[in-house]
Amino acid sequence: MTERLYLDDPDLLRFRARLLASRQLAGRPAAVLDRTAFYPEGGGQPADRGRLGGVEVVDVREVEGEVLHVLAGELPPGEVDGAVDGARRRDHLQQHHGQHLLSAAFEATAGARTTSFHLGAETCTIDLDAPLDRLGPAELRAAEAHANDLVFRDLPVTAREYAPEELAALPLRKEAVKGSRVVVVGAPGEVLDASPCGGTHPRRTGAVGAIAVLRAVKWGAGARVEFLCGARVVGALAEAGRRLAEAAAPLRCAPAELPAAVARLADEGAARRKELDRLLAALAAAEAERLLAAAAPGPIRAVVSPPAAGAAGYAKAVALALAARGRVALLGAVEDGRAHLAFARPKGDGPHLGELVRRAAAALGGKGGGSPDAAQGSGPEAAGLEAALDEAARGAQA
């Protein structure tokens, strides 16, 4: 049986231990020690990393009650020195205890219970049993503020095994699944959170540093909340500042002025698109008049050349303009080597243009469809556009 030093002393990073047995796990050597400060993966918390006797520890797993230290190489027999990666341990401790505080905060402020927890390499998530519509921006900020209040008060944290009568007196946030180890936040007489857990936790809540709720999304019948704690909050703030500065630079404004600058740019873009649509409609009407003046009786079949990018939209606008003038239009256009089709006719009796454009697009190696009086399609074989339009014209006259 391995003595688990991390349970009593989460700050212990260096220790000496004796090799009890050598195992194999996933093709790698794995050591069983008489005592260890390495935390094995479990409860949503990833395993520690570090070195044993100078050999890299690549994973730590609990298998059938044994703590297996998965190694990059063989470990010599006898006693070894162990060194846990302190930065990784501190990060996991901050994220895991921050989750406890955030889960308690959501239960206190929104009546939402945590059903699962995941500590990821970049962000963390908790799944709540409350639907997303109960967790709007105000509710997320309220839970975040409540959790950070627990952090900033630097409350005592106790993590130990409790006797049955002690457990009965604790306001447990969830029932213990295995064992009787409970993490308690607060002092006797003022227990602010109590939750069964076998992970690593600080001695005081202030070690978490800070908790930032990023977003909430629908997850099944409930919601998934993404968050960061401790040093990850600092890193995320720096990254957000960098991205804001990069976005502000082309607009020649300060990062704080970015929302107003983007709104102004969006308004200008909308105005320009509206003016472009007006000019395109005028050009399409003029092209329709030109085609109409030169057309013989029957469907008007032509390949049009758009004045700029947007062949499909231009061909459609011309076709609709001809239909508004009482004619059947079977038009094509080419852009970037791709053929586009736009068919239109006045409403009422006439050829089914959806079927015609489907056959014409298939001849171009593409797809198309639409209603009896308006349809569009496209295909990559632009060299066959004239022949596809000729076939559509014959079909329209049949």
Automatic annotation (TrEMBL):
Keyword field contains Cell membrane: no
Compartments, as annotated in UniProt: Cytoplasm
Organism ancestry: Bacteria, Pseudomonadati, Myxococcota, Myxococcia, Myxococcales
UniProt protein name: Alanyl-tRNA editing protein
Residue ranges with Low complexity bias: 372-384
Ranges for region Disordered: 364-384
Cofactor(s) required, per the database record: Zn(2+)
Keyword terms, alphabetized: Metal-binding, Zinc
Top-rank lineage group of the source organism: Bacteria
Residue span(s) of domain Alanyl-transfer RNA synthetases family profile: 1-239
SMART domains recorded: tRNA_SAD
